[in-house]
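Q: Hi! First time doing this. I have a protein sequence and I read that you can turn it into a structure. Is that right? Here it is:
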Amino acid sequence: MDKKEEPSRKLPFNFTNNPSNLKEGYGYCRHVKEYLFQQFQQCGKDNKELAAATGYANINKFQDHRLQWQGLSKPIPRKYLEAINVDINTLSVMLNMDRIDFDAAILLPRYYEWCTVRIMPAIYSIYSFGETVSEERAIKLMKAYAARINKKCTINLPGLCGTMVEPDGSVRRWNYYPKFDVTKAWVKFGWDGALLGTTMIR
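A: Yes, that's right. Below is the predicted 3D structure, encoded as structure tokens:
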């Protein structure tokens, strides 16, 4: 079977994720993802063989999960990594390279065009700033808007960082620092925040 990547049929349709707030030139765990894809392409096994090696009887389910593993959005079975000849030590080297990229990217000035507004659980809308503004200016605008409508507002740079403003003006910040947890059966990567503040339908 052709190993060319294709969109998963089961990924959620996301109609609020405007790409304008993405950080150009930086990708969460880019080196890790490139290494995984390279090993997948060069392993010499087709999807049927990989599914069997990983313990999947349903080839379609395997392919859906494999795409999520490639995107680091689902814990990766060690059996799959072994089947595509991934070396955990090399994977750690790639992760360290991604951490170096993160450390450089997090120091750069950040600019935003919009924020997400939490209307209710799992339901969000977008508030546009009307122009591209600095992070400091974005937070000031969010504070005023959050207080006016009594809703939480968030600016998010997937794979890098996010900031939430509460209606009372309090601010919470977080980073999507590249990391993974290795067990005997799984390798689990940290969340990149790509779907934060989005409304999804399946």
